[in-house]
Amino acid sequence: MPVTALAAAAGAAAAVWLLLPPSRRSAAAWSVRVAPSSRWSPGRSVVPAGLGAVAAGGMAVMVHGTTLLLGLIAVGGFVGAERIVRRGRDRRAAHQRADSVLEVCEALAAELRAGQPPLQALRRCVEVWPALEPVAVAAELGADVPRALRRLAALPGASGLAELASAWQVSERSGATMAVALGSVADSARRNRAAQHLVLSELASAQATARLLAALPAMVLVMGSGLGSDPWAFLLTTPIGLTCLGSGLLLTYGGLTWIDKIAMAAVER
What is the C-alpha to C-alpha distance for residues 159 and 139, in angstroms, rounded to an integer? Predict the structure, then answer.
């Protein structure tokens, strides 16, 4: 019996570990061994985590009946919900960052058209978006401004700064008027952001429908309880019910992740 308990605990730990992102140290080592396209992503851990949870759950039933399995499902559900909330928060932050990048491009182009020197224009743009401070510092120190812009463009939602860096670099090397080049970048960023807003508005109904369908089983359970039946006892106290509950939560998490991936892929095009 103790051996089985240890095996169940190990399976539960493996299932939770597969749901969590790797540490920075392990991610760096992983990136050396595999191609970039094979690196870890949130959606790829769903299937192995589900298999690990099923294996741990089966052992948990043999050890302590349904109690340990219910705890495992609760932990997995908490981790999945936390990941969904964090993903939504990161997505909203990326959208706000994209809007800030557009404001920076427009403000920088306007400052240069008004005759301000590039250094002073960058310093004024820091007031629009404080995250641009490292770029302004690089300009003040005579460092590579395009490189600083590209480093900042690696942040989610800030990819528009890569075009700004290219225009800045071309203007420096060719001696062309920087106001004209950055004005073109601002116009392009405005059109791209308008297209992204249109795509997001079209996808909003599909995402809302997916969230409604994810909440529908809980609503049905509440309605069933109101009609005099006891579906909670079946789900929370029987092995078959717990298997259905765990599988349903896993599929719900996979479906929401899939919808989010489709939406992000459509916006990034």
Answer: 20
Mean pLDDT by runs of 10 across the 269 residues of the chain is 48 53 41 38 51 55 63 85 89 89 90 87 89 90 90 89 89 79 86 85 83 86 80 84 88 87 75
Distance (Å, whole) CA 266 – CA 260: 10
CA pair distance 77, 195, nearest whole angstrom: 36
Contact (Cβ atoms closer than 8 angstroms) between residue 199 and residue 266 = yes
Rounded to the nearest 10 degrees, what angle do helices 46-64 and 239-268 cross at?
170
Q: Which helix (H) or strand (E) holds 194?
A: helix 178-226
* pTM higher than 0.70: no
The DSSP H or E segment spanning 247 is helix 239-268
Contact (Cβ atoms closer than 8 angstroms) between residue 150 and residue 129:
no
DSSP string, 136-159: HHHHHTT--HHHHHHHHHTSTT-T
